[in-house]
Amino acid sequence: MSDNAHSEGHVHSAKPYIRIYCILLVLLVISIVGPMMGGLTVMLVTAFGVAVVKALMVAAYFMHLNVEKKYIWYLLAMAAIFLAVMFFGVAPDVMNKDGVNWKRLDHSAPSSSTAPAHH
Amino acid sequence: MTSSSTHADMAHAADSHAHHAPQSFWSKYIFSVDHKIIGLQYTLTGIFMAVVGVYMSYVFRMHLADPTAHIPFYGVLSPAAYNSLVTNHGTIMIFWVAMPILLAGLGNYCIPLMIGCDDMVFPRVNRLSFQIFFLSTVLLLVGFMAPGGAFGGAWTSYPPLSAKVEYNLTPHGNVIWLLAVALEIVAFLLGGINFVTTAMNSRAKGMKMFDMPVLVWMIVIATIIFMMSVGPLVAGAVMLLLDQTLGTHFFAAQGGDPVLWQHLFWFFGHPEVYVLLLPELGVVCEIICVFSRKPLFGYKTIVYTTFMVGILSMIVWAHHQFIAGIDPRMASIFSLTTIIISIPVAVIMFAMIATLFKGSIEFKAPMLWSIGLIVEFLLGGVTGIYLGSSALDVYFHDTYFVVAHFHYTLIPLVAFGGFAIFTYYFPKVTGKMLDERLGQIHFWGSAIAFNFIFIPLFFSGLAGEHRRIYDYSGFAELATPQMQSLRTMATHALLVMLAFQIPFVINVIKSLLKGAPAGANPWKANTLEWTADSPPPHGNWAELPEVHRGPYEYSVPGREQDYWPQNAPN
Amino acid sequence: MSAFQVPIATNRCATGIPTGRLAIWWVLASEIVIFGGLVACYLLFRFRHPEWAAEAEHTKLAAGAINTFVLLTSSLFVVLAHVAASNKDTVNARKYLIWTILGGLIFLCVKAYEYTSEISHGYTITRSVFWAFYYTATALHGLHVIGGMTIMGLLLPDVAKGKNLQRVEYIGIYWHFVDVVWLFLFPLFYIASAAS
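YS: structure for the whole thing
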């Protein structure tokens, strides 16, 4: 229960957090206005690129990963990497509409609960 | 930080008598926060469920030996009941026997004792973890009383069979089954966070990372694999639950994708095999060193190899889906990784065998079970190479060859490993020695009978016998007398194996009543749990131990004794 | 039942990270794969179905943006609560925690408004797999918001007494994570639509 050691000696100031918060709000505006400009690349960069930046800023400054032991980064990165492994392992089967010598049949219209059609 | 925490240690040691205030039965055994009691609660629940699961296998094996017979202690088995018994046998043996005994029970009991602290870091979270687990156990068993019966769509619960009541015909059983499994996962996540944090933060004074016994390493790595692989399945379970209850189409062919569930399930399901394997290998490492009086061969190699196993175990999952219509290019990648993972496992096995080399080996019961585990698991592993190759798997998939293969891996792990743990730690937990002669009878009888259950199934699988079939009379080439004799042989061997559990039960009862007192260190082992009293009191030690050396200093030249406890100053 | 006594193990600190904070990071690592698993499944389907962009038009961009703003602001409050707690300023710590809880409440109210209007326009969970993902992901996130608010509520009496102040930091880390999850759900379900 003695983990406030880093605060002993000096008073923990709120100012840096408010500065980060202001930057986050600016990024939020960019992520909303950007995609309205149109264009896929603009949308990807402003919506998802900015989301990544925002997430990293929250992690680094609000969650204090910038002053935390390095291996917490590794721990979180490990989770993210395993997730990426899962994504790319599943993608060839679930993501594609067609591939070499196969094509997914169209079932997009949800059918009623009558006997299922076999293909 | 260190100075302040040692200060806290001393302050606690001063008033440690407060720990030993007399407690009522309820607070001591039922709502205890003590890691040892919680470990025992997990283990005993697991043993109870093992009896339930074995009973199920007894019923359906009796049915397969003689489909028309009236089965003693059961009656006549209906096709729907056959399906639900097969399903729940698998579910129980993995989630309610292997996990609680090998990971939760063993980890809870051993981690604090082996790293020299008084409890888990979050005792109340630990208690909550067991309570959730217990709730999930009750829920699973309640499924058998639900209208329509218990879920019968196999332990893998593939949609659309599991998602649609029109197909599985168990309107309540499928939801109850899914909820029980989800609760059980939550329980182990809570426990797992406790395990990892305890091992990382609470080691005894002087104990460095590489002074931890291999068992602790293995449990921690197994826990991390579990935590990293189970997440997508939790998400998948929520999606399947919505498919079942609200009628969404996540896993339906209309708009969704049934193969996605298979991926989510096996992304967890395959690492799970290694979650069960690693703690066992850890126990075997400990036992082999103690009973051959030799240092572990290649401690660091084993630890690094275990990391490798952990990483590789996350990228082999799709070998369960070779005939599910997955991309053939991925199938060849997963074949390759599956075959590669046998290398680190073999390295660990060879390190164990090298430990035995020129040791003074004593074949006490724990040692027999450990050696038995290595030998029998080898057969399971080698047949896995056949199945891992995607071309062969097209033929073998869903036959009894697969059944025999994974029982050859899981029974050595869960039964042999479980009995190794039981016989090794029984003196520590109860303070009484087990009878050695009954232990030997139990081992040889069970081990030989075990082979006669599953070797016939390899052959019937090779002959094309499909699993999960209630009645083979409709399949001309499977209903022959030759095939039937293989089935009957397996059932007879199962009955023999069950009969050989009687000496074990007698042994336990006899030893509990009038076994020889064990003393603190009956096996003359080095690790810290053997320096505490048997059974250890609440708080484990009057004064927490300090560590001076690694865990495997056996037969050090120039010393009078052939062991050197980790906490001995000299 | 005898009073619970914190074991010595809890106060040991071999890694240099306090036990509670280390555990929170492990919780988050396992949460990453849970939410990540769901989002990964959504992404796989989203790439397969470009036509879902039209469905995403019917989510309410303005409400989502307001909620992002609300969560970011509550994140600021909870970090300010941590600052106050580490300065042993229990009055401000308690105040900022209450503001954080209020932020969570506003978030849930906006969410409730969204759900109501979507469902009343026929965009229910069974309409298509897009909406199934939308409701599953946002509801799972909403449950985490409720969980965080509940824990903060339970912490308030202790914080006022100056007990266990380190917990303010731990719940803060969790709350930021819930915020980060939303930062990804927002573009996934609201921004990436045919209108943009």
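YS: worth flagging: Residues 1-9, 109-119 of chain A have pLDDT under 50 and may be disordered.
IM: good catch. Also The radius of gyration of chain A is 23 Å.
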